[in-house]
Amino acid sequence: MTQPAAPGEAPDLLYGETEDDLRATVRDFLSIRCPAASVLTRIESSEPYDLPAWHSLAAELGCSGLLVPEPAGGAGASYREAAVVAEETGRAVAPVPYLGSAVVATAALLAATGPEPASEDDRKLLAALAEGSVTAALAVPFETAPGSALPTSVRVAGAPAGAGARLAGTVTGVADALPADVLLVPADGVPYGLYAVDARAGGVTKAPVVSLDSTRVLCDLTLDGAPARRIAAGDVAGAAVTAALSAGAAMLASEQLGVAERCLEMTTAYAKERHQFARPIGSFQAVKHRLADLYVLVAQARAAARYAAACLADGSGDAPVAVALAKSYCGETAVKAAEECVQLHGGIGFTWEHPAHLYLKRAKSGSVAFGTPDRHRATLAGLADLPGAR
Amino acid sequence: MLSDTAAGPAATAAGDIRRRVHEVLEKHDPASTPCLDFLRARFDAGLAWVHYPPGLGGLGLPRALQPIVDAEFAAARAPENNPRRIGIGLGMAAPTILAFGTPEQQQRWLRPLWTGEEVWCQLFSEPGAGSDLAGLASRAVRTEDGQSWRVNGQKVWTSMAHEARWAILVVRTDPDVPKHAGLSYFVLDMTAPGVEVRPLRQITGEAEFNEVFLTDVVIPDSDRLGAVGDGWRVAMATLMNERVSIGGGALPREGGMIGTAAAAWRDQPAKRTHGLHDRLLRLWVDAEVARIAGIRLRQQLAAGQPGPEGSAAKLIFARLNQEISSFEVDLAGGEGLRYDDWTMRRPEASNFFGRGPGFRYLRARGNSIEGGTSEILRNIIAERVLGLPPEIRVDKDVPWKDLPR
Hints:
The complex is a heterodimer. Chain A is an alpha+beta fold. Chain A folds into three domains: 7-135, Butyryl-Coa Dehydrogenase, subunit A, domain 1 (Orthogonal Bundle); 138-237, Butyryl-CoA Dehydrogenase, subunit A, domain 2 (Beta Barrel); 239-383, Butyryl-CoA Dehydrogenase, subunit A, domain 3 (Up-down Bundle). In chain A, 50% of the residues lie in helices and 14% in strands. Chain A contains eleven helices and nine strands. In chain A, the strands form two sheets. In chain A, strands 1, 2, 3, 4, 5, 6 and 7 form a seven-stranded mixed sheet that branches. Chain B is of the alpha+beta class. Chain B folds into three domains: 1-80, no CATH class; 83-229 and 396-405, Butyryl-CoA Dehydrogenase, subunit A, domain 2, CATH 2.40.110.10; 248-372, no CATH class. In chain B, the strands form two sheets. Chain B has a four-stranded mixed sheet. Chain B contains eleven helices and eight strands. The radius of gyration of chain B is 23 Å and the shape is globular. In chain B, 41% of the residues lie in helices and 13% in strands. Classes of the chains: A alpha+beta, B alpha+beta. At the A-B interface, helix 7, strand 9, helix 8, helix 9 and helix 11 of A face helix 7, helix 8, helix 9 and helix 11 of B.
């Protein structure tokens, strides 16, 4: 079984001053650039991703370089800070590829090449990701859980592995790939490899998916002899994919914390202002007790999300447990919060014009992404030595 | 975290406090000093509760330093004051005495309270006043000379009353004003004539609690805490401390009731089913997240950012204990149909995690009732933390004597 974590050894689970400052900056920015009304308009436009906002968030606010070390062109921050930005993008249901590019693709590249890549091309790609001039996505289905079998739907085709390789195959339901300039594609072959593919190159087709969550539109990728450059091979490539999925699950847990927190806030405010039977509906215990229960869940989810971020930041051996805990707990909390948000808003909460549905769709999709809560509990069964029935 | 290697004032304070502990240990060898003498010496050195003022068992230092003191004394195998037995004194009476007591009262009560010489109990709830504590009916009337009060009434759900020397007591001193305004808070000598303690048997078969009957009990006015009519405010201070003390406690992973359930699961492969497995994993996640949230809460307190998350801890604790013990009975199957012992006993302290699954299941039902029902806690979170409008109240401006009962 896993080593019991003694209380004295627990990492710092609070927010530091730097994180508070970062949060304030990102929240201000998103409240101006991605207010709910504009997100509602955008999801039915031809550009569901808000690329101008993303480029400002990435380049001007420096959010794309948080995980990249300073010598490689990044901010040299950690998953603690990255998690705070994820909370804020969740609060705003911001249609930006922060999770896919600044977290998952960046984590994959860092794990594949190390913090100081040996190859000039890798160094350039990492620096470009960090400064926000390039957006990337890891080409795996969004529902892929960390620790699941490595994807094999894309194969190295034609030319031998290495420079000048060509890839063929399809990957369905990839998050944040629509706005990506570069695709990091895990591809089966001898050896297994992680490849960088220019998304505009010939042989690459992106087909947008009508997605449950319109604020993070998925796409199906088809690679038909697409030119690719190998950035890692064999065990290193596999480990890079797993590390990226782990980071994605942990930061998505923080994003879901943000979703849940915002749903609680919106619903609490509405319960104070909405009158029925000549009193605010929040004065009825049937309503206020549900909000109190939601508050409790959000407080617990915050501890779980901070623990996962801290474990990744510190390279703790407890990270696999922490990530599975956070992803299962925060996923269910976000869904619960969004469902309560719709219900307690009553009729208006069921309308398209009210943003509650954006949160519900983001929460439900997020709980499936990078492994369902159930899937993560199954992981914990293994980690905590709680085997199932035969 | 505070440690020897940390730089700055924190390290100085930690080093200084260790020096003080070792001075006590040198002067009073824990192996040969009688327990009570040792505890008194520790109190007098200000190492009982370092955040209390000098002269009252403390040094006026941050509370975060206390774990260092406790660890040093524990490492030296020093006698301890059996905090489980005197939990009500430590967790509820002491902070209230510190906040509202006169210097004379503090000098009289705090030292024997902390050393365990004098056990304390709490006389708040009544058969007619549970969640609506402010509606209580026990009456205190001033004696003719004005120096004392004569008290009549019945209190209930009182743990340790049969061992207690003192009680914290809330009674009605003025029935002619609205209910919150007519209460006063006293310290009651449990050996005074007219105090009768009877065991109150509970669904587990044992009697942790008591009923306490007060018949013409005389309390000197000098044993009052806070002003006449200010009893509600004083009682609220006590109850906030109760919630903190019931919900708190740092444990390792699987350190609470979930550890017992997980061990039973590992030991009995034949009893596993898919449905039970799903329940166990959900409970394991909830228990572990609650444990981490407890760590975060303590970090907030240590950093001087007390968060409202504290009120959440007791709600979670009650629900988890109930669901985990229910799971345990189901897992036990046929064994779960047996109960260890219905004999009426009087345990020395409440035991949430002991005995068999059946006992734990029954005892856990009380976790969402004692120390504030879960329903009242939800009201508190909703109104004080989330700022939702209060309940519509029909009893706020009516004299207590005119309320329907």
